[in-house]
């Protein structure tokens, strides 16, 4: 039978989910045509504690593509392979205050401003070991799966759709390449990046992935160490400053949890040493962040005093 604590958690998640449900604003992403076919009404949330208990509500098992929620995890894999100094030769750590697909390159250094926007994420993917996109994606896919604690697969239709419409991302890769900060050819980097964005996850996976960062790099369900503790800390720091793009500052004030959003409708958020949360709702605001995902995380944080700067 479920413990009293676990039914209390379930009631909390149900309550924030039902509070968010009527919110009808926003729209499903259409710039990647295959994302437009999603059912906009889907709504799910999951919370995984660093002790490995998972609580879920709504469509927490419904799959969607991870999109930009992959960025911090692939950044972590690049850090694990190369260390902070080497990664920082290629990508910066400063909030851009710009949209996710901004043409972003620091003029002095030729680096994208941070790894949470597309330009920087493509550079992270280029840094992953392997000569071909296939080799790089083998590492990326295995790494994302280790964060989630199960074997994740690729939505081939979404992948093809990104390949067919990804010229802006190719432009970002060429720009970084011309500035000397891309670590592979632009074709290899973008192909690996498009595949990484098309990985299928559900809200439960995102909760466990985030909880792995919260637990200092150890997956709380499988107990596998996925990345080093310093890598988990650096990654969480960048999520704190840059994870919600040009809404990151307001997010930090209102919600106060390191987080990362994706245009598939997912958000992963965490409280270090405590838990990870995954949310899923496909309708996005103008910045590409899930409207009801934000709503759920905002009310969870507010009602339960989860802000990282809460006086305890
Ligand atoms: N694959 C998407 C893109 O590159 C990811 C963007 C996002 O989720 N914000 O445009």
UniProtKB/TrEMBL annotation:
Q: What class of enzyme is it?
A: hydrolase
The subunit structure is: Homotetramer.
**UniProt: substrate binding residues:** 68, 118, 162, 169, 193, 245, 263
Which keywords appear in this protein's UniProt record, sorted alphabetically? Acetylation, Hydrolase
Name the record gives this protein: Glutaminase
- Family under the similarity heading: Belongs to the glutaminase family.
Per its record, the protein catalyses: L-glutamine + H2O = L-glutamate + NH4(+)
Parent-protein residues present: 10 to 321 of 430
EC?
3.5.1.2
**Signal peptide range:** none
């Amino acid at each position: 039978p479920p413990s009293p604590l676990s039914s209390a958690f379930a009631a909390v998640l149900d309550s924030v989910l039902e509070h968010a449900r009527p919110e009808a604003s926003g729209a499903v992403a259409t710039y990647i045509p295959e994302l437009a076919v999603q059912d906009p009404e889907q709504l799910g949330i999951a919370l995984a504690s660093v002790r490995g208990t998972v609580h879920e509500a709504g469509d927490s098992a419904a799959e969607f593509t991870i999109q930009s929620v992959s960025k911090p995890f692939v950044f972590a894999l690049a850090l694990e392979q190369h260390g902070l100094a080497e990664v920082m030769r290629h990508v910066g750590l400063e909030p851009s205050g710009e949209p996710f697909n901004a043409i972003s390159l620091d003029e002095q250094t030729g680096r994208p401003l941070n790894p949470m926007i597309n330009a920087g994420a493509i550079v992270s993917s280029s840094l992953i070991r392997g000569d071909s996109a296939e080799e790089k994606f083998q590492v990326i896919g295995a790494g994302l799966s280790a964060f989630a604690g199960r074997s994740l697969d690729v939505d081939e239709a979404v992948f093809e759709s990104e390949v067919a419409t990804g010229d802006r991302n190719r432009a970002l890769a060429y720009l970084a390449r011309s500035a000397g900060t891309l670590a592979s050819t632009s074709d290899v980097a973008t192909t690996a990046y498009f595949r990484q964005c098309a990985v299928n996850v559900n809200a439960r996976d995102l909760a466990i992935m985030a909880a792995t960062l919260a637990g200092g790099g150890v997956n709380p369900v499988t107990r596998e160490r996925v990345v080093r503790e310093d890598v988990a800390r650096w990654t969480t720091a960048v999520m704190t400053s840059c994870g919600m793009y040009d809404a990151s500052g307001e997010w930090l004030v209102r919600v106060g949890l390191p987080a990362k959003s994706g245009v598939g409708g997912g958000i992963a958020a965490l409280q270090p040493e405590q838990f990870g949360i995954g949310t899923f709702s496909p309708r996005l605001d103008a910045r590409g962040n899930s409207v009801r995902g934000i709503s759920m995380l905002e009310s969870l944080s507010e009602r339960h005093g989860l802000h990282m700067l809460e006086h305890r």
